[in-house]
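Subgroup meeting minutes
Present: P.N., E.W., G.H.
Scribe: E.W.

1. P.N. recapped why we're keeping a running log of single-chain structure predictions: easier to compare across weeks, and new members can see raw inputs and outputs side by side.
2. G.H. added today's entry (226 aa).
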Amino acid sequence: MPKPHGLLLINKPKGPTSHDVIDRIRQASGIKKVGHTGTLDPSAQGLLLVLVGRQATKKQNQFQGMDKQYKAAIRLGVKTDTYDSEGSIQQVYNGRMPSKSKIEKVLKKFKGTFKQMPPAYSAKKINGKKAYELAREGKKPDLQPAEISIYKIKFLTYDSPILKIKVDCSKGTYIRSLASDIGQKLGCGAYLAALKRTKIGNFSLENAVSLNKINTKNWRNFLIAP
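Output recorded in log:
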């Protein structure tokens, strides 16, 4: 009898790594061949598309190429080395915080296709070693900018110093880098305070199951066709 295979739409909470989620699904399903279609940092939450079984994981590249949607909270006025709240503070801005109108003008500049520099603390591979491993050793990773596309960038709310936005973008887009770049354009610095992935292609977070609800008895109930 063939083993079950398909996709699981998982609502990843803050805390576990994307690989932790894979391990949980392996334990629940008893299937070793499990993968995902795009990493979420431990501090990020939201939609993680998990591929279960060999027939599903064969299509990993196809799913990895899908566009993404995120909701992000950006802390203006502070720069960190990791571009998020986990890092060391590099600079604190003591000037007047930008106005809503200035923020809206700056956000419009990020719509389109352009080269984006990945964060030094990222999982980008450099000669077989992850960039964040080199950064933690005090070395400067030799990163190259990559072409990404931002299709929509929507202002949601601004309760100084926290700016909230929604972003529709191509694969490979680092929202941490986007947050840092927005802060640089505003002249006050910024880091990514919170992140939630809400869509991958046509798959939506609204249809995802919480990770803590998955177990050995019910995981098959949440499988969908790849």
